[in-house]
Amino acid sequence: MSIIHKSTVSKYFEDFSIGDKYVLPSRTQTSAVFSMFQGASGDNDPIHYDKEFCKHRGHPEMLAHGMQVFIQTAAGAGSFPSEIRDSLLGLVEFSGKMLKPVYREDTLYPELFITKLIEQNTTGIIEMKAMVHNQNKILVFEGCHKYLLKKKMPYVK
Question: Is 53 a domain residue?
Answer without folding.
Answer: yes
